[in-house]
Recover the amino acids of this structure.
């Protein structure tokens, strides 16, 4: 089989995922957070957004309330919000 001459630059890809892709990840997470807040429609329930970096830019949206698990289990509020902005949610 002929080689194409292409070599993957793992460090370069990692740097792109940490710097250039992170703002886009954070923007999507912010949209998910806004949709969750709208879906819950309760000013007393806090919905948090935590941006962080591992080997790439990442973000977590959390319903910071004991009722959060029930809202997700019963209504799928986080899953629906993620799907509404074009994200695919897969079970672990």
């Amino acid at each position: 089989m002929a080689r194409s001459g292409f070599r993957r630059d793992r460090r370069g890809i990692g740097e792109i995922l940490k710097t250039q892709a992170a703002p886009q990840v954070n923007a999507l997470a912010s949209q998910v957070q806004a949709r969750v807040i709208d879906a819950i429609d309760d000013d007393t329930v806090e919905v948090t957004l935590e941006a962080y970096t591992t080997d790439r830019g990442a973000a977590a949206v959390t319903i910071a309330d004991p009722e959060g698990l029930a809202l997700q289990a019963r209504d799928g509020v986080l899953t629906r919000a993620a799907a509404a902005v074009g994200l695919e949610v897969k079970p672990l």
